[in-house]
Design the sequence.
């Protein structure tokens, strides 16, 4: 899909105090989940993430598949593609701010896509060495629509998406949101980076626009992106996915 505007960003959506409050809420959720024996690793479909039961020889990092393939010893099964910790937040004041800015971006970019809901926000921690390799947050056709999942009953089919949340059934991720919660001088690396494709005049773009604390970026969920490896400090972020019926 060709877009005139590929993303939209805002400064100071959340104040420094609000960012610190969100960080505290997120870290508390991670701590509580860990104490209860839950999974705090940022998961990836297929289990190709650090913290899974699989044994890996190394990290995929920010390299493309083409770059990795130049290594004669390259084996994709040996590399994990995500290293982060996650918590989950559903605070009304946070959701309201995000949705208001999403609607503004949806209009100003002239996407004007139909959307009607938002998934639970994901609080993410990238410590030194943490990263998230190339991925999209979801396809937007009917095959990608969420299907009802009943634990212990539903037989999952590979490549399909499932949910236990009834109001998400039949919907897809259309718009993705990333909010930087960390002061920019507290970490290095950890940049959101887009891949516009091999035919673009400039293929890759690192989003330094949201380096400031409290900044927010809005982009299509089908757009390929990554978080580059953190080289110093810790990066905290908040991620949201805006959903609606598949494109028609």
Sequence:
């Amino acid at each position: 899909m060709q877009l005139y505007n590929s993303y939209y960003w805002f400064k100071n959506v959340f104040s420094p105090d609000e960012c610190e409050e969100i960080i505290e809420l997120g870290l508390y959720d991670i701590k509580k989940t860990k104490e209860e024996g839950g999974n705090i690793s940022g998961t990836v479909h297929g289990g190709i993430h650090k913290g899974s039961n699989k044994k890996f020889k190394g990290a995929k990092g920010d390299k493309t598949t083409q770059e990795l393939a130049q290594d004669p010893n390259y084996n994709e099964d040996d590399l994990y593609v995500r290293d982060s910790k996650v918590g989950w937040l559903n605070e009304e004041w946070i959701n309201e701010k995000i949705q208001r800015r999403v609607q503004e971006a949806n209009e100003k970019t002239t996407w004007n896509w139909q959307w009607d809901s938002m998934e639970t926000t994901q609080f993410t921690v990238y410590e030194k060495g943490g990263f998230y390799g190339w991925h999209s947050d979801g396809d937007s056709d009917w095959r990608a629509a969420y299907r009802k999942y009943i634990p212990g009953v539903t037989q999952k089919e590979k490549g399909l998406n499932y949910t236990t949340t009834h109001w998400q059934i039949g919907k897809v991720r259309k718009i993705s949101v990333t909010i930087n919660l960390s002061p920019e001088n507290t970490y290095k690396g950890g940049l959101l980076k887009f891949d516009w494709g091999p035919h673009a005049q400039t293929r890759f773009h690192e989003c330094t626009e949201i380096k400031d604390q409290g900044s927010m970026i809005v982009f299509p969920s089908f757009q390929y992106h990554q978080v580059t490896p953190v080289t110093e400090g810790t990066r905290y972020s908040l991620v949201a996915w805006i959903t609606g019926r598949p494109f028609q």
